[in-house]
Specification:
Layout: H1 3-16, H2 25-39, H3 46-55, H4 71-85, H5 90-102, H6 114-125, H7 129-142, H8 166-172, H9 177-180, H10 184-208
């Protein structure tokens, strides 16, 4: 069996067992699809990139957990034994680990390689658009917060608080992601997906006002 299919067969169970729909096996599939699309326009080591994609969320730490920032490091460490088993070299494993670590939004790291830049973009794009709306609502349910403040849904006269209101998270983080993309393709897709979310908010405001 080739290295990547063998690696996927080993890692898939981690995600299938996940009870978090924002970091499950379909999430990894979407990130892989987007990473491949972005990679077509970049000079990239595809095996390194895809190995990192499939291993990037092996250890999922909840967003409200104090160790959330360590999730990418823990995932990189967990991946090593599987990468060794699948025949990746020491040098390749070091590169893959770095890509996994640098993809994390909470760490705020600037990507040191094209592969890390693409994984950052592909993973962040999955937080936007129609799937981003679903993922945000799922996290909202996990954190037991409200969809919006009924008195001021768009925080026009209050300070935004995304720990209390889901819609606030759109403005605090998600709408800013396109400008943080590393690639032209990632930025273009991010702008398109944010437009979808703005359309959703307009419809939401029509329904609740």
């Amino acid at each position: 069996m080739q290295r990547l299919p063998k690696l996927i067969s080993l890692l898939k169970d981690y995600y299938i067992k996940s009870t978090d729909p924002a970091h499950d096996w379909p999430h990894v599939g979407r990130v892989a699809m987007m990473a491949k699309l972005i990679a077509k326009k970049e000079n990239v080591n595809l095996p390194i990139l895809l190995a990192a994609v499939y291993a990037h969320d092996l250890v999922n730490v909840p967003k409200d957990h104090p160790d959330r920032e360590k999730a990418s490091e823990l995932s990189a460490e967990e991946a090593k034994k599987h990468l060794v088993y699948c025949g990746f070299s020491t040098e390749e494993i070091a590169l893959i680990s770095q890509v996994i670590i640098e993809h994390s939004f909470s760490k705020g790291l600037k990507p040191s390689s094209t592969e890390a830049a693409i994984l950052q973009d592909a993973d962040r794009l999955d937080a936007l658009g129609a799937i981003g709306i679903l993922r945000c609502a799922a996290v909202n349910a996990q954190m037991k917060s409200s969809f919006y403040d009924p008195q001021d849904p768009l925080a026009e006269s209050r300070e935004r608080d995304d720990k209390r209101y889901m819609v606030d998270h759109y403005f605090i983080k998600l709408f800013k992601l396109p400008e943080m993309m590393n690639t032209a393709a990632g930025k273009a897709e991010g702008i398109k997906r944010v437009a979808t979310m703005h359309n959703f908010l307009r419809e939401l405001m029509n329904e609740i006002r």
